[in-house]
Design goal:
13% strand; 107 residues; alpha+beta; elongated; two-stranded antiparallel ribbon; 3 helices; two-stranded antiparallel sheet
Length: 107
């Protein structure tokens, strides 16, 4: 059984892209996502008691983690509202779109 089958990681493909090679994997659990994005990069500072330095680094990543969670909530909200007929939309899918230019990702 792989991590995707267990629901630990998921794959997202860009909504408007016909090529599924451009998909990205992500950690499904928001608490684990926070831990690996914000805590793990600063473990050495935390272990050595440099807590203010670690806190500054963690604070710098909070906007990205919060934006990911907000995007997921918005996606769910749109489907719920469309399902109840409160939005005048007929959607098959809701998702993100990104492109890659010269070796760097743009989200």
């Amino acid at each position: 059984m792989c991590l995707e089958d267990m629901g630990m990681v998921g794959r997202r493909d860009p909504v408007l892209s016909p090529f599924h090679r451009k998909g990205r994997y992500y950690i499904c659990n928001p608490f684990l996502r926070f831990y690996y994005r914000c805590i793990v990069p600063h473990l050495a500072d935390i272990e050595h008691g440099k807590l203010s330095r670690a806190a500054r680094g963690i604070a710098g990543n909070l906007a990205t983690v919060s934006a990911d969670v907000f995007e997921e909530l918005c996606r769910e909200w749109i489907f719920i509202e469309c399902g109840h007929g409160r939005l005048d939309l007929m959607l098959e899918t809701v998702g993100a779109f990104w492109v890659q230019q010269r070796g760097r990702r743009l989200d």
